[in-house]
Amino acid sequence: MVNCQHCGKPLNISQHTADGMYKSCPRCSVKDGEEHIFFPYPDSFGETTKRSSDNHPEGPQSWCYPHRFDKNAPVTPGGIQCSEIDRRNR
What we know:
By secondary structure, the protein is of the alpha+beta class. The chain has 3 helices and 3 strands.
């Protein structure tokens, strides 16, 4: 398992920003191989009640739209690296 070079958490596990406006795509993050790659949430992911949990009752989809339909797609353009998200939140 590879961890994010910025935050140290596993790249294959979704991360949410504190304000909930961005979420990382595990597939994009693993393909990047260095940092979590974030996209606007929920617009870039979608939601379903089948994935709802106590922490996320809205039921976020794990992967961004392009990877939900093609797991072999390259890193989705327009993503924001974990280090940049951190800089924006300071």
